[in-house]
Structures are given as C-alpha cells and as structure tokens.
Amino acid sequence: MLAENSSSTAHPAAIERERAYLLRYARLQLRNPAQAEDAVQETLLAALEGAARFSGKSSLRTWLTGILKHKIIDHLRRAGREQPLTGIDDDRSEAEAVDALFARDCHWREFPAQWGNPDAALEDSRFWAAFELCAQRLPARTARVFMMREIMDMTTEEICKELDITATNCWVMLHRARLTLRECLELQWFGKSEK
C-alpha cells in the first residue's frame, strides 16, 4: 500500500499523513473532539518514538490504529474510574426508540430492507461517513459499549469489568445499538425512504 511498508521503520511524514484518519477514528470512539485530539497526539508521539519497531508486516495505518485503540482503551479506563456513566434517562429514551421498531405482536413494524452487498459498502468512504453520523446519534453509554465490542474487539467480560455493568446489561445495550444503527443506516446509506 504505502512505500514505507517496505522499510523496517515508519517515516515521520508518513505517520503524520495518517493523522486525519486517526482523528476521525478517535472522534467516533470518544465522542469528544478534545479527548480525540489528545488520544491521536499520544498515538503519534508513541509511533514516532517507536518507529524503529514498525516491521512493515501490516500497513502503517493498521499499525497506527492498533496504537490508537490502546490509547482509547486507556482513556476509557481512566474515564470509567473518574466519573460515572450517563444516567437512566438515556436508557429510557433508547428503549422507547427500539420499542418503536416493533408492533404489539413483537414483529417488525417494517421488515428491514435489503442491503445489497454490505462488503462493498465497507470499501466506500461515504459509508463510513454515514456510519459515523449514525454512531454519534447513539446514547453515549450505548455507543461506548458498541465501540468497545465491535471496533476494539473487547470481550463481554472485559467490557463489563471496565464499565462495571452486568453481562445482560451489556448484551441489551449491544442489541439496542445494532437495531438503532440498522435503522439509521437504512435511512442514511442504503437509501430507504421514510414513510
């Protein structure tokens, strides 16, 4: 992909070129521009200090994203110790939004639309812009659990430990996040019109 993959170190200019991507990624995870900027700065500093350890076995972006994931996890751990998660009001409004997707008989009010080729969408930067928009609409607590599980590949046990929640609560939040994201992506990306 990039020429720096052929060498055993990452060039500072190549590292800096990935800054915009890393910042978008961090903003999606942390939902706070200042905290995202801090995480990216820490990532770039760690990458520059450890450039000699970059072996070129993966792309530079993959290597930097791995460093950033660790910085974000560290931030979430600190934040979890320093302040409680958002209150029950987020849960109530989120539960009401999910309930609105289903009829009284527990069937979909409207069956989910066909998504065509989802793998092709993953290669399109416009899809990721729509995904970011939808993820930002999730309640903070639900978004945090979803990102920890689906983006950072943390286990349910790790998430529960970090956020001091039960496994059942984690699964409920993941289910709600997936339903909400599905509905939003149908409107924002897959072109389903509102009725």
Summarize model confidence as the mean pLDDT.
Answer: 77
**Within the CATH hierarchy, at the fold level, what is the topology of the largest domain?**
Arc Repressor Mutant, subunit A
Q: How many angstroms does the end-to-end distance come to?
A: 44 Å
Number of helices: 10
The gyration radius over C-alpha positions equals 19 Å
- The percent range for helix content is 55-70%
CATH-defined architecture of the largest domain:
Orthogonal Bundle
* Strand coverage percent: under 5%
The tally of structural domains comes to 2
**Class of the largest domain in CATH?**
Mainly Alpha
Query: What is the overall shape?
Result: globular
Tally of extended strands? 0
The profile of the biggest β sheet is:
none
| Structural class by sheet pairing and helices | mainly alpha
Low-confidence stretches: 1-8, 82-90
What is the secondary structure topology, with strand pairs?
Blueprint: H1 12-17, H2 19-30, H3 33-49, H4 60-82, H5 88-99, H6 118-122, H7 125-136, H8 140-151, H9 156-163, H10 167-188
Comma- or semicolon-separated keywords:
195 residues; disordered N terminus; Rna Polymerase Sigma Factor, Chain: A; globular
Describe the protein's architecture and organization:
This protein has 195 residues and is an all-alpha fold. It has 2 domains: 3-82, RNA polymerase sigma factor, region 2, helix turn helix motif (Rna Polymerase Sigma Factor, Chain: A), CATH 1.10.1740.10; 88-188, Orthogonal Bundle (Arc Repressor Mutant, subunit A). The chain has helices at residues 12-17, 19-30, 33-49, 60-82, 88-99, 118-122, 125-136, 140-151, 156-163, 167-188. The protein is globular. 22% of the residues are buried. Residues 1-8 and 82-90 have low confidence and may be disordered.
